[in-house]
Amino acid sequence: MTKKDLGIFITILIAITLVLNFIYMNNFLFCVLLYTYGSFMAVWFFQKHKIAKSLPLALVTHNPVQIFINLYIVSFTVIKYQLPFFDLTNMLALLTLYFPALIWEVSRKIKAPEQETEYVTYSKLFGYKKAVNFVFIVTWIDIFTNFALVWNLNKWSVLALLLNVLWCSWKFVEFKKNPTKYKIVTKVEMYTYIQESLMILTIILYIIMHR
Fold this sequence. Notes:
By secondary structure, this protein is an all-alpha fold. It contains ten helices and no strands. It is flat, with a radius of gyration of 20 Å.
């Protein structure tokens, strides 16, 4: 498949999904917003010569696409059930769905000094300790959004989430002491799987218990 063929395929795919969204979904405008941002992202916001050479700039411009994806998902529920759009719960939901993507994206590009190659990483740019500190801070900001969302649903979930983030925090500390012990992204992935599973389980249990 040539680059031209791929372009044609993507154009047809986008057209089909837009039509389907217009016919069957209640949040077509948010679909257009998502695709608009995605289109600008695909062409590097017409600044590829600058963005492609800067890992932090690429993160700032490309990683927020996850927010637009989350906004598309949340907007469907808000519109369907006629919920207030601009409220704290929705904002927390958008953030708690976004932060794991940011944490993972940064952590996967953190390496021990001995393991660095010509590939640009955050640890090469800022040092692995500063990069881990950033992930540590965002992880705790993220967990507080989780606490706020489940506080009135199940206090045991709050405790489980706290234990999970304490475990992950200890792994950050261990990595800073010995960055060759393991790849930090593997611990972040495990932490995220547990975190998201706990959030989903909390909602399911709440629905079952309050029928």
